Amino acid sequence: MKGIWTKQTLINLLLGQFLSLLITATGFLSSELARKGINAPTSQSFLNYVLLALFYGVLMIYRQEGIKAKWYFYVLLGIVDVEANFLVVKAYQYTSLTSVMLLDCWAIPCVLLFTWFFLKTKYRPRKLVGVAICISGLVLVIFSDVHAADRSSGSNPIKGDIIVIAGATLYAVSNVSEEFFVKSADMVELMAFLGLFGAIASGCQIGILERNELRSIHWSAGAALPFVGFSLAMFLFYSFVPVLLKRSGATMLNLALLTSDMWAVVIRIFVYHQKVDWIYFVAFAAVAVGLLVYSGRDKVDKNVADEGIVRSKRFDEETGLDPARKDAIESSRTEENRQSFDAETMPGIQFQGR
SS3 for 287? Predict the structure, then answer.
């Protein structure tokens, strides 16, 4: 057990829980705005994109480094991310906070498919079992929304569920794209351009769809504070997501965010004083167990890694290879492998050296 639960695994779990708390905060604030009758999902995310563009854009200018990926890929990523946020926030008008948080797990099978197909990620049976357990919560929550008396918290739960699933699919596309760019390009560049093009796409959509809604809002502390709080929570969330993506990938990110459902239930019970159907608790248990199963490091992986270290040391001893020379060779091989990966995986993207 000690060999499976490494320090890196625990750090990834804690980072995932921090992101889970942030996403729960955004869900709570979105639900509050929906309860006040404010229907401006794109406007809620606009300030977040502006903050990303300003903060990381200044860092890019300060570093004075060339762009490592084609800018138009960031344009597409910005549009996909904006629409994903739009759909998920829109769903709060039709279904409950808990349902939205749970149905986000639809992004997990999508991430698995996209990472396997585009990033050539390999998943061992243990990982797939953990994902399958998490996805079981998806079936349970849909069953609950259809048959249980949970409709008081939403005007049209089924419509809301469909909107969430569509948004979760776009989230999967966005997460996998971010994983590729953060590992192959640069985190600061990714966040700067995501903020820039996300702000432009959001601004255009606000001008088309939400002008009248913004005019009709009676701005007060009760309306402005949720907007500002949502943007700050999203800014922190977007800033730390690339860290977890680089450490453990998009699948781990989406699995970690499923624990936000537990925090959502706490909010629903103690803040809204609503009753929660018993099926939700079964779904929560499935999510928690699946996350633990997925997060644990496979013993076979550890054994392979240990054997590789032993063989490397034995080879060095037999050949008398100098450590400094060995480091230079390994560095050269790493660079060659990275260039080969860039050329073979995404031939349409050209990366420049720092």
Answer: helix
Evaluate whether 102 touches 161 at the Cβ level (below 8 Å).
no
Name every residue whose Cβ is closer than 8 Å to that of residue 242 and which is 6 or more positions away in sequence.
178, 182, 187, 190, 191
- Which of these, 183, 176, 181, 205, lies nearest to 70 by C-alpha position? 181
Rg of the chain, C-alpha, whole Å? 22
The whole-model pTM stands at: 0.71
> CB under 8 Å to 92, separation ≥6 — which residues?
27, 30, 31, 33, 34, 100, 160
Residue 239 contacts by C-beta under 8 Å, 6 or more apart in sequence? 52, 191
Q: Report d(CA 351, CA 71) in Å as an integer.
A: 11
Are the C-beta atoms of residues 20 and 263 closer than 8 Å to each other?
Answer: yes
Contact 349, 70 (CB under 8 A): yes
Helix (H) or strand (E) run with residue 63 in it: helix 41-63
- What pLDDT digit, counting tens, does each position of 242-274 carry? 998 888 788 778 777 777 766 777 777 777 777
**Positive/negative CA dihedral, 234, 238, 240, 241:** positive
Structure tokens at 214: 């913004």
Q: At what angle do helices 323-345 and 157-184 cross, to 10 degrees?
A: 130
Separation between Cα atoms, residue 179 and residue 187, nearest integer Å: 10
Q: What is the DSSP string of 135-176?
A: HHHHHHHHHHHHHSS-GGG-S-HHHHHHHHHHHHHHHHHHHH
CA-nearest of 189, 244, 180, 203 to 53 is 189
Per-residue confidence band for 147, with pLDDT thresholds at 50, 70 and 90: low
| Residues 57-80 as b or e (16 or more Cβ within 10 Å = b) | beebeeeeeebbbeeebbbebbbb
User: At residue 3, what are phi and psi to the nearest 5 degrees?
Assistant: -75, -25
